[in-house]
């Protein structure tokens, strides 16, 4: 078996990290209260704004994406607040579970991992919940490959006094996202997916409506208190509360430079075309794109039902042992007969072609 350092990560996260990003992380020896670090952090936060589609301040949160999801709940709500969670994937369900654990009144909707959001049904749900405070939704859920219609959902919430909180962890940086234009209230992403970096750092944006809700929240928070992070990053010499993970900031700083140099529209086109090509070729090899018959599939991850006679473990093990490619198995009820392949961040057409050739080799040998 090849060593871990030789593996091509074709998972939905973490993803392949460009050499210059790895190098930047390893050379980041500056102090987190120094002027050079303040300059780098400021450049990073400004560089992220076009990928969020916002002019609002970007908040760096010293956690993985899941920690930032929890922070969105604790910073904006109080016990008993009604929340509607769209749960058409594992990570949509995470939002619901976090809210429930903190004592919010959570209504789960679109709970099948094969179910797209039906807007007329969503309107009925919104109208049926008295004093609804927020909707939580995952833009691109890597457990299912569904891309949820954030712009259309935002059109519903911005007409009402309801917050829209979006997990964009596997979309922002890889898929068009217009925080300000669409009227999203809170958006979250993290370092290890479209931002082509190591896990451990998240980024959050809030608009004025969300900051107003923050003022009345009574849930406990300390480490991820948004208003304290805002104070730190908006100083003339920006920093973060506590000791900043300097190497992670350096990595994402370099990654965002690379994405900006490529041009965000070119990045988005690359994700879309790579995903479409992968699904086309895998279908020809007998792998069914799943869920079937979606209106829109995520440009960053694809799920496939494996052909009869194989298991997800068969495919995953063969690719890792014989070709140095690591893909993901399905999750939940889709664990045994399904695989997931990521195509976000630094994944190129050559990586897609290498993966397809490896799958073809496995079918030939086993067939």
Topology summary:
Elements: E1 8-9, H1 19-26, H2 35-52, E2 59-61, H3 65-76, E3 82-86, H4 90-101, E4 105-109, H5 119-128, E5 134-138, E6 140-141, E7 146-147, H6 150-157, E8 163-167, H7 179-182, E9 186-190, E10 202-206, H8 208-214, H9 226-233, H10 246-262, H11 264-284, E11 288-290, E12 301-305, H12 312-323, E13 325-326, E14 328-329, E15 338-342, H13 349-366
Parallel strand pairs: 1-13, 3-4, 3-5, 5-8, 8-9
Antiparallel strand pairs: 2-10, 6-7, 9-10, 11-12, 12-15, 14-15
Helix pairs in contact: 1-10, 2-10, 3-4, 10-11, 11-13, 12-13
Structure, explained:
The chain is α/β, with parallel strands linked by helices and 367 residues long. The model has no long low-confidence stretch (mean pLDDT 96). The chain folds into 2 domains: 8-14 and 263-366, Aspartate Aminotransferase, domain 1; 19-260, Aspartate Aminotransferase, domain 2. Helices cover 42% and strands 15% of the residues. It is built from 13 helices and 15 strands. The protein has helices at residues 19-26, 35-52, 65-76, 90-101, 119-128, 150-157, 179-182, 208-214, 226-233, 246-262, 264-284, 312-323, 349-366, and strands spanning 8-9, 59-61, 82-86, 105-109, 134-138, 140-141, 146-147, 163-167, 186-190, 202-206, 288-290, 301-305, 325-326, 328-329, 338-342. Helix 10 packs across helix 11 (264-284). The strands form 4 sheets. It has a 7-stranded mixed β-sheet with strand order 2-10-9-8-5-3-4, sandwiched between helices. Strands 11-12-15-14 form a 4-stranded antiparallel β-sheet.
CATH architecture descriptor name of the largest domain: 3-Layer(aba) Sandwich
How many separate structural domains?
2
* Number of contiguous helices: 13
Shape: globular
- List how many beta strands DSSP finds: 15
N-to-C terminal Cα separation, in Å?
22 Å
Instruction: Label the structural class.
Output: alpha/beta
The unreliable regions are: none
Question: What is CATH's topology name of the largest domain?
Answer: Aspartate Aminotransferase, domain 2
Task: Estimate what percentage of residues fall within beta strands.
Answer: 15-25%
CATH class descriptor name of the largest domain: Alpha Beta
Instruction: Please name the fourth-level CATH homologous superfamily of the largest domain.
Output: Type I PLP-dependent aspartate aminotransferase-like (Major domain)
H/E element string? Answer: EHHEHEHEHEEEHEHEEHHHHEEHEEEH
């Amino acid at each position: 078996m090849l060593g871990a350092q030789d593996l091509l990560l074709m998972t939905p996260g973490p993803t392949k990290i460009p050499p210059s990003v790895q190098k930047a992380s390893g050379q980041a020896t500056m102090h987190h209260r120094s002027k050079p670090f303040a300059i780098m952090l400021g450049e990073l936060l400004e560089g992220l704004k076009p990928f969020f589609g916002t002019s609002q301040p970007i908040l760096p949160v010293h956690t993985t994406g899941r920690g930032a999801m929890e922070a969105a709940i604790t910073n904006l709500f109080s016990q008993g607040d009604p929340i509607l969670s769209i749960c058409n994937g594992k990570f949509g369900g995470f939002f619901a579970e976090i809210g429930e654990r903190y004592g919010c009144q959570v209504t789960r909707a679109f709970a099948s991992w094969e179910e797209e959001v039906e807007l007329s049904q969503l309107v009925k749900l919104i109208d049926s919940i008295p004093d609804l405070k927020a909707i939580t939704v995952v833009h691109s859920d890597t457990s299912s490959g569904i891309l949820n219609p954030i712009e259309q959902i935002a059109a519903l919430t911005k007409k009402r006094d309801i917050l829209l909180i979006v997990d964009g962890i596997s979309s922002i940086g890889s898929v068009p996202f217009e925080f300000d234009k669409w009227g999203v209230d809170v958006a979250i992403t993290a370092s290890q997916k479209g931002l082509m970096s190591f896990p451990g750092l998240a980024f959050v944006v809030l608009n004025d409506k969300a900051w107003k809700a923050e003022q009345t929240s009574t849930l406990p928070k300390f480490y991820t208190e948004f208003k304290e992070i805002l104070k730190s990053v908006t100083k003339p010499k920006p920093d973060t509360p506590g000791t900043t993970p300097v190497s992670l900031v350096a990595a994402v700083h370099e990654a965002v430079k690379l994405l900006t140099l490529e041009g965000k529209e070119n990045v988005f086109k690359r994700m879309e075309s790579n995903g479409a090509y992968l699904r086309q070729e895998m279908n020809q090899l007998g792998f069914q794109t799943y869920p079937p018959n979606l209106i829109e599939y995520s440009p960053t991850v694809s799920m496939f039902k494996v052909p009869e006679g194989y298991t997800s473990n068969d495919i995953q093990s063969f690719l890792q042992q014989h070709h140095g490619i690591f893909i993901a198995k399905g999750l939940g009820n889709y664990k045994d007969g399904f695989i997931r392949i990521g195509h976000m961040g630094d994944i190129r057409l050559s990586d897609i072609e290498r993966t397809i050739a490896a799958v073809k080799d496995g079918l030939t040998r086993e067939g």
